[in-house]
Amino acid sequence: MTTLTLGSLFDGIGVFPLAASRYGMIPTWASEIEKAPVSITKRHFPNTLHLGDITKIDGGKIPPVHIITFGSPCQNLSNIGKREGLAGIQSSSFYHAIRIIEEMRYCNEWNISSYRSLGKRHGSFFIK
């Protein structure tokens, strides 16, 4: 059986990698810009490659993984904010996740899984 690998965009404190690791998956890389959350993920997963700013990642140049998780910023989707939707400056980061997935798939001749996990702060779902 193949051991599944995972990449985490908008990693935060590494909740997706932590849950995945409990089921035998291997967190391979993560993207996060906040120093405190990165330090937490590094403590739990010292072998994980940290990619930094999602806007600077080329999906074709990072290690391919089976599963990519992401929970992009939701400030512009919130009832509290201006409700700019995915056009808002923070929530439009969602499109970088899609770009990275497509770049990885293109460079690796579609050999990565067709599963992605789109998450919010309190849950997630899988897209096939």
Describe the overall structure.
By secondary structure, this protein is an alpha/beta fold. It contains three helices and six strands, in the order E-H-E-H-E-E-H-E-E. The chain has a six-stranded mixed β-sheet, sandwiched between helices. The longest helix is centred in the C-terminal third of the chain and has 14 residues, at 94-107. The model is unreliable at 112-118 and 120-128 (pLDDT under 50).
Features:
128 residues; alpha/beta; six-stranded mixed β-sheet; globular; disordered C terminus
Number of helices: 3
What are the segments in which pLDDT stays under 50 over at least 5 consecutive residues?
112-118, 120-128
The main β sheet shows up as:
6 strands, mixed
Shape field = globular
Helix-strand string: EHEHEEHEE
* DSSP summary, beta strand count: 6
SS content category: alpha/beta
Q: What is the share of helical residues?
A: 10-25%
Lateral arrangement of strands in the main beta sheet = 3-2-1-4-5-6
Please specify the SSE layout and strand pairing:
Elements: E1 5-9, H1 15-21, E2 26-31, H2 35-44, E3 49-50, E4 67-70, H3 94-107, E5 116-120, E6 123-127
Parallel strand pairs: 1-2, 1-4, 2-3, 4-5
Antiparallel strand pairs: 5-6
Short description:
The chain is α/β, with parallel strands linked by helices.
